[in-house]
Amino acid sequence: MHRFIICGLVLLTAWASPLRATVLIPTIESWGINGSGSQVYLPGSSISISVSVSATRTDPANNNSQVVNIYVSKVNNSIISPAAKIGMVTCSIPGGNIGGGPVVTQPFTLPTTFGGTSFTAGTYYIVFSAVGSAGSSVESSSFTIGVPDISLQSPGGTNLTNGSSTVSFGDTAVGQKLSVDFVIQNPGSGSLTNINPTLSGANAADFSFTSLPATSLTPGSTTSFRVQFSPSAAGVRSASLSIGSSVTGSKNPFVVALSGTGDASPTATTEVATNVTDTSAVLNGTVNANGTATTTSFEYGATSSYGSSISSVPSSVTGTTATAVAATLTGLTPNTVLHYRVDAASNGGMVSGTDQVLTTLPGTTDVPTLSEWGMVALTVLMLLAGSSRLFWPVKNQ
After folding, report:
1. Which residues does 277 contact at the CB level (< 8 Å), separation at least 6?
2. Distance between CA atoms of 264 and 4, rounded to whole angstroms?
């Protein structure tokens, strides 16, 4: 609670004949707040008012004290109904004063409500009513009630609604982090103080502050803070962000819901290849998406460093059970060792199955056909026949 000092000088001067009573004419000479001249107050502020009354006595025997009523009003009028007065106090100025009278300090607390409702921003009056033997004189000075307010914005300058807005952090893998920046503004006419954001709710431990706002804001100014989301488990995670402050009413605290989704990483298993020939093979595996859409593929190559990849069929899987995936390789080299594994990638991360090895079949040797064997036999016979002419003796007939 702020304490403001209002210095008011009520100079009371009476002009009277020896047969007339003392007349009080109060006058406010000057006043200010903490010597700064500012005239902006907060409801509930404790104020100290100094009042000085002086008069010229027409009757030397008249040594009565003088009464000064002090109150706050929305009306600047000498005739003010009781309903228009706020927190009236009375101070008594000792009598016997000639010229400048003694100074009386009167504590005064601005109430937080007026007519049963909260103060609203606007112009009010501190009224001094000096009561004298000839009647009352009234003097007043205006001041401003400054009422703070609070608004909250999410990224992009979207104004959030107290009690109904939800800010989504999106999806991220379990253990990973996402952050959102918030901006607090004071659109009111009084200083906003005691700013204190807190987190609560079912999964509050998954949300944390990585930076905090300023604890006070002057009218029209802003401050920012950051909340980080790091899911500890898969699924939707939720919490509540509450911002306490000096605002009165339903905006204290200012509350918005927070939400984010933790994505579990998929699982992948590399299976034995099938339909292996000298130039082709079918690569096999299974993938469990664990509830998050997952893309699948195979890596393969001459070593476990692989170097080549191919999309699988199907190329994307969902759900929470193992799904068979496969890919067909063609154009392979006969009698060659090939390493391969299945890959799975989602918002929950990327995983790979274990390395597997296959060997293509040896290449086939050409086998002569029957007709080709016949030609070979004929050629051999002809060669043998020619040789017999060369080496075998021929009988004379």
Report:
1. 360, 361
2. 58
Domain 151-263, CATH homologous superfamily name and number? Immunoglobulins (2.60.40.10)
Cβ pair 327, 298 in contact under 8 A: yes
Could you tell me where in the chain the CATH 2.60.40.10 domains are found?
Answer: 151-263, 267-359
* 70-103: burial string, b at 16+ Cβ within 10 Å, e else: bbbbbeeeeebeeebbbeeeebebeeebeeebee
Residues 6+ apart with CB under 8 A from 339: 300, 301, 302, 303, 304, 306, 355, 356, 357
Instruction: Compute mean pLDDT per 10 residues along the chain, 397 residues long, and list them.
Output: 30 28 38 38 55 46 57 60 55 49 54 55 65 54 74 88 94 90 91 93 96 93 96 93 91 95 91 95 93 92 94 92 94 95 90 94 68 68 62 49
- Tallying the residues shown for the chain, one arrives at 397
Asked if residues 239 and 206 have their Cβ atoms less than 8 Å apart, the reply is yes
Distance of CA 145 to the CA centre of its chain: 31
Given a contact cutoff of 8 angstroms between Cβ atoms, the answer to whether 312 and 297 are in contact is yes
Report long-range pairs for 293-297 (Cβ below 8 Å, ≥24 apart).
293/317, 293/318, 293/346, 293/347, 294/266, 294/318, 294/344, 294/345, 294/346, 295/344, 295/345, 295/346, 296/268, 296/325, 296/342, 296/343, 296/344, 296/345, 297/327, 297/342, 297/343
Identify the CATH class of 3-145: mainly beta
- The predicted pLDDT at position 32 comes to 36
Both tokens assigned to 120:
């609203």
Q: What is the pLDDT of residue 189?
A: 80
For 131, counting Cβ atoms within 10 Å of its Cβ (0-12 exposed, 13-18 middle, 19+ buried), the class is: middle
- Residue 208, pLDDT score: 97
- Looking at domain 267-359, its CATH superfamily turns out to be Immunoglobulins (2.60.40.10)
Residue 225 is predicted with a pLDDT of: 96
